[in-house]
Amino acid sequence: MKYMLNPCIALRSWKLVPYAYYIKYNRNAQGLTKEEFELLTLCDGSHELKESELLRLLIEKGLCHPSTEGEQLSDWQKPLACENRYFPAINWAITSKCNYNCLHCFNASDQKQLVTEFSKAEWEQLLLEAQVCGIHAFTLTGGEPMLHPDFLDILKGIHSRGMYLDELNTNGSLITEEILDEMKQLGYKPLIKISFDGLDHHDWLRNQKGAQETALSAITLCIQKGFPVKVQTNVHRLNWQVMLATAELMDSLGVLEMRIIRTTEAPRWVKNSHDLCEGGACLSFEEYYDFGMEFTREYIAKPHRMKIDIWQFLQYDQTKLTYHKRPIDSGSAYRDSLPVCRGNRGMAAIHANGNVVPCMQMSGYYEKHKKILGNVKTDGLKKLLTDGDYLEEICTTVGTLAENNKKCGSCQYFRACMGGCRAIGLALTDDMFGSDPSKCIYFFNGYREKTDAIFKNSGSMWAEQQN
Ligand SMILES: C[S@@+](CC[C@H](N)C(=O)[O-])C[C@H]1O[C@@H](n2cnc3c(N)ncnc32)[C@H](O)[C@@H]1O
């Protein structure tokens, strides 16, 4: 009998990850054994295969099926051998231009508007290379990505090459019914992440009169059109009091998830908020965690459908009564060879000027220090994902961090913390192996235990999940 890969399955090989497959619209690839991979490469409708236990298991796993007359593999499904290292995703600032000039923007170090963006030739080249490198998912960001004159063509280019738009970061001001309809026609609805920085505080932080109304209309429209919406909300000393009311509103609109992010000490924000609060407007880490706990206690006291993600602290889903603490305790899964940031390792972050950076939060630091790890416009993506400075930085292991930072390496919490967030560590110590003080406070001040207590004392059967 002849067999076919199921239509949502594509076979991929990378340097060091030779046997893997993608499930369509699932960001990360899954590993296979050599035998499984080789058998699946024969599931193309043209090879006669003997029945076997392995084949039965692959069918059971949903990877292949007996073929029917006329079935054909799509180009996307066919085995693709990539010479570069495994990267399933790209976080791409297609433009740095923005129609807002937010007071806190980490992309800009002064008050000037940014102006770089990918030209048509440059984005076409990047998409071509992304396909060759076995990239699957894209997050588009900016600047305001929807301001890019080729925004829709870029989306179409991503989808026509078998990749997909996974997430769109936007201020929502350019979302229209027509654009959403066009996006729908691509056959996949991305997660639309709309920024909303607190009820009656949004216009101020966004430096734009009417921004709140615009964002609320965009959120409502996306939900009406069936798109999943995640709201991204900055929290700082001037707006933490309205977070609960903001969450109530977002939940009532049908938002899937609200992510609350501590506004970080970006140069522009430090400048703009300097005179507004004694000691600056950023919440200290203790204030941030204490806020997060108080917010959580109040939020879970009433029923809500919307999930909450308090950045690098706590995530929970009231509909499932589950929560995850951040950072995850890797426990017995700890290995010295783990990368210092698992998020960065799988997702190449590309700035509007073409520079690759470990993550977008770090882009300001790298720009300021003129530290260039590579540029997709001049070097090409494939080269950067094959070897060189970017790859070396992104593959830095927790073992190397422990060797270079004795304080972290000898800490009782190192296996759980693994040095914390590199973006925070770097921003506050100027050292790529520097300790992330937010995690020292988190572990030594007992916030893990305190967060467990919130759920245990809530009277519901909340269960902790590890990832
Ligand atoms: C740079 S914007 C680009 C996408 C889009 N223009 C938007 O407004 O969402 C992406 C996200 O970064 C967040 N952001 C910018 N500066 C920040 C800072 N200093 N601290 C924390 N988040 C920041 C924004 O609030 C926004 O949610």
Secondary structure elements and pairings:
Layout: E1 2-5, E2 9-15, E3 17-23, E4 30-31, H1 34-41, E5 44-48, H2 53-60, E6 64-66, E7 80-85, E8 89-93, H3 120-132, E9 137-141, H4 151-160, E10 164-170, H5 177-185, E11 191-195, H6 202-206, H7 211-224, E12 229-235, H8 243-253, E13 257-262, H9 267-273, H10 285-300, E14 307-310, E15 314-317, E16 322-325, H11 342-346, E17 347-350, E18 356-357, H12 363-368, H13 381-384, H14 389-394, H15 398-404, H16 406-409, H17 414-417, H18 422-429, H19 437-444, H20 447-456, E19 463-464
Helix pairs in contact: 10-20
S-adenosylmethionine binds at residues 98, 104-107, 141-142, 144, 169-171, 195, 232, 234, 261, 263-264, 266, 269.
Describe the structure.
- This protein has 467 residues and is of the alpha/beta class.
- It is 35% helix and 19% strand.
- The chain is built from 20 helices and 19 strands.
- Strands 18-17-8-9-10-11-12-13-14-15-16-19 form a 12-stranded mixed beta sheet. A 4-stranded mixed beta sheet has the order 4-3-2-7.
- Helix 10 (285-300) runs parallel beside helix 20.
- Bound molecules: S-adenosylmethionine (SAM).
- S-adenosylmethionine (SAM) is lined by residues 98, 104-107, 141-142, 144, 169-171, 195, 232, 234, 261, 263-264, 266, 269.
